[in-house]
Amino acid sequence: MTSKQRAYLKGLAMTMEPIFQIGKSSVTPEVTAAIAEALEARELIKISVLKNCLDDGRSIAEVLAERTHSEVVQVIGKKIVLYKPAKDESKRAIVLPV
Predict the structure, then answer these.
(1) Which end of the chain has less Cβ packing within 10 Å, N or C?
(2) Mind spelling out the 3-state secondary structure of 38-81?
(3) Nearest to residue 57, comparing CAs of 14, 18, 5?
(4) pTM of the model
(5) For residue 1, what pLDDT is reported?
């Protein structure tokens, strides 16, 4: 992913609300499966890490990206933004700049 594409996705994610919260149980298989489903449906999601979670945002983002085969767009404090393009070209909601 180029820096221009990353900047475009960051701009889209700015106005989004987090749709998942990761708490003290951190990254469980259930959370990973739910996030993978959300990525299939939306392509771009924002996740919030709660204060009672012992892991830091960057490590959680890397684990989630690896398990869901997505890319980390950005991690700012306790907010994570992940992107995974839709498998079907016709269903892509987000078109990245070249």
Answers:
(1) C
(2) HHHHHCEEEEEECCCCCCCHHHHHHHHHHHHCCEEEEEECCEEE
(3) 18
(4) 0.90
(5) 82
Q: What is the mean pLDDT of residues 84-89?
A: 83
Residue 8 φ/ψ, nearest 5 degrees: -65, -45
Identify whether the C-beta of residue 37 lies closer than 8 Å to the C-beta of residue 48.
no
What's the CA gap between 75 and 89, in Å, rounded? 27
Strand, helix or coil for residue 95: coil
Look at residues 87, 91, 96, 84 and name the one whose alpha carbon lies nearest to residue 32: 84
- pLDDT tens-digit series, residues 15-68: 999 999 999 888 999 999 999 999 988 999 999 999 998 888 899 999 999 999
Q: Which two tokens stand for residue 72?
A: 């980390």
10, 42 contact by CB (below 8 A): no
